[in-house]
Design a protein that fits this description.
Layout: H1 27-54, H2 58-77, H3 79-92, H4 95-113, H5 116-140, H6 162-180, H7 185-208, H8 214-240
Amino acid sequence: MRDRPTAPPPPPPSSASPPPASSGSPPHRAAGRAAVAAALVLGVCSVLLLVLVAVRWHPLLALDGDIARATHRWAVRDRAVTQACRVLTDWVWDPLTMRLVCAAAAGWLVWRRAAWWTALWLAGAVALATIVQQSVKAAVGRPRPVWPDPVDSAHYAAFPSGHALTATVVCGLLLWLLRRHGAGRALWRTAVAAAVVSVAGVGVTRVWLGVHWASDVLGGWLFGALLVALAVLVYERARKRPGAPERRRG
């Protein structure tokens, strides 16, 4: 009996064959999609609140008034807490302080990582936030609360809160940079806690001191978060281009 011919063994896989398709998306694409989704949601919420403030929607004004009157009574009665709020809002969480923190972070990026493009992007985003804040204030022209016995004073229009907007932008961008550069667990948790306390705390102090309506602070948070999402989107889009500066180091 003759042996049956056997099929030749399959050829070994070639090193030039294409790798299997990955089921997941590259990190920069995932970050870009998240930034787009966040920008859309925050944009809608920001515009909606802006319209309600501009047309002086009565339910919103009534709620603002109730909150303002209650917190002002507490501020007049509890002078120690009021003084602490003034120190926090004028020195710790003041927009100038936040911009100095941003400048220090930009300087660190240049000094330790030679990340000039990222440093300029960070500084430019914070500068844009200031322009947006002042432009919206001028366009809406909302008056601040007026009290017969004020515990603090402030200038310019009320909406949105510049303190809340600046703190949100600076803290949001710095948190994103820490996450992107792989900050350790302890540093990350500390930074998140500090950012949450700062962003929430500055909003509380502005309402407590009677210089902003509650919706002014909410507007500052919304517009600030919107600017963070747009800045991240611009950063990710710029890094995807061939030959982009700091494409790998960022």
